[in-house]
Amino acid sequence: MSAEADRCPLCGQLNQCTQADAASKSDDCWCFTTPISAEALARLSEEQIDKNCLCPQCAAGIDTLNKTP
Predict the structure, then answer these.
(1) Statement: residue 53 has pLDDT above 60
(2) From CA 13, how far away is CA 26, in angstroms rounded?
(3) Is the dihedral of CA 52, 58, 60, 61 positive or negative?
(4) Cβ pair 52, 43 in contact under 8 A
(5) More confident residue, 65 or 57
(6) Is the pLDDT of residue 50 over 90?
(7) Are 37 and 60 within 8 A, CB to CB?
């Protein structure tokens, strides 16, 4: 994961990723069992795919901040 592995690449908010937290790295991340919005995935650049977890809101397709970093 990248240097800012705890941030969503779409909105910049904390992504709640357990894999990015050394204390809980062995735990499954919330995204392992949650459907990810196709629209959210389409917003990622090729370089962003599989680098950082999305936050739950972006993963669900909810654009709470209506902006990208």
Answers:
(1) yes
(2) 22
(3) negative
(4) no
(5) 57
(6) no
(7) yes
Angstrom distance (rounded) from CA 57 to CA 27: 21
Lookup result for tokens 């919330």? 30
> What's the pLDDT tens digit per position in 4-42?
888 999 999 999 888 777 777 778 888 888 899 999 999
HSE-up of residue 56 (Cα within 13 Å, Cβ side): 7
Q: Shortest CA distance to 68 belongs to which of 15, 13, 4?
A: 13
The tokens for 16 are 């709640």
CA distance 26 to 45: 28
The pLDDT, as a whole number, for residue 52 is 82
**What is the DSSP code string of 12-23?**
-SB---STTSTT
